[in-house]
Amino acid sequence: MARYTGADCKLCRREGMKLFLKGTKCTTNKCPFEKKGYAPGQHGQRRRFKQSEYAVQLREKQKVKRMYGLLEKQFRLYFEKAENATGITGENLLRMLECRLDNVVYRLGMAASRAAARQLVRHRHFMVNGRLVDIPSFQVSAGDEIQVIEKSRQLDAIHDSMKRVRDGKLVDWLALDKAQLKGSLLELPARESMPVNVNEQLIVELYSK
To answer: Using an 8 Å Cβ cutoff, are 75 and 61 in contact?
Structure first.
C-alpha cells in the first residue's frame, strides 16, 4: 500500500502547526517545530503574502489528510462517503476519520501516535469484538470493544504508551480499562467532542468547486 515516507516534522512545519505525528517527541523541546516554526524549503522563511481563498481551503484539507496519515485518493473516498451519508458532510467526514481503528487505538492511549497505532494494527495486535482485525481503516461502530490480543499484552510499545494515559483524560465517547488493555466506543462522536482543531467546512467548499 502506498504511503508517505518523508520527514513527518516537515509536514507540521508546512501546515504551521503541530500535527503530533511523532508521538511524545512532539511535546518535548526536541520537536523540530519548536526550533523551525517556518515552512520547509528554500523560501520557507520569506515574508508570507495573504493567501487566496483556494489556498486557505487547500491548506485545511492537507492538514486533516496529513493528521490522519491518508493519501489523496483515500481522503477523497472518505469525502465522497461523507457527502452521500445523512447529516452534515464536514462532520460526517471527521466522524469517519475518528472512528478508524488506528485512530481509536491512538485515542485510547495504546499507541504514541496514529502511525504507531497503524503499525500495531497491521501487525495483528488487536481484536474488535473478539475478532482479530489487521485493517487500520476498519470502521469502529458504537458499542464495539477493542482489546489487545493475549500474546501481545507484554509489548513495550503498548505499555509505554499506556503509562502516559491519565484517568479521565480520554474523549467522552471512549471508555478504557487499563488493567485489561481494552476499550470501547460508547457512541459515535459529536463534532464538539472531537478534539480536532480544523475547519471542516473549508474542505467541503474546496471539493464543491
So the answer is: yes
Measured in residues, the chain has a length of 209
Average pLDDT over residues 69-77: 94
CB-CB contact of 83 with 89 (8 Å): yes
- Map residue 147 onto helix, strand or coil: strand
The predicted model gives 132-146 an average pLDDT of 97
* Mean pLDDT, residues 82-89 taken together: 96
* DSSP-assigned letter for residue 85: S
In one-letter notation, the amino acid at residue 54 is Y
Mean confidence (pLDDT) of the chain: 84
**Residue 2 burial (CB count, 10 A):** 7
* Entry pTM: 0.81
Distance between alpha carbon 154 and the CA centroid of its chain, in Å?
25
Residue whose cell numbers read 471512549: 174
pLDDT digits over 41-65, tens only?
544 555 566 778 998 899 899 999 9
Residue 57 CB neighbours (<10 A): 21
What are residue 131's phi and psi, to 5 degrees? Answer: -115, 130
Strand partners, 148: 126
Taking residues 63-74, what's their average pLDDT? 92
CB atoms near residue 54 (< 10 Å): 11
Torsion angle of alpha carbons 27, 31, 71, 55, nearest 10°? 100
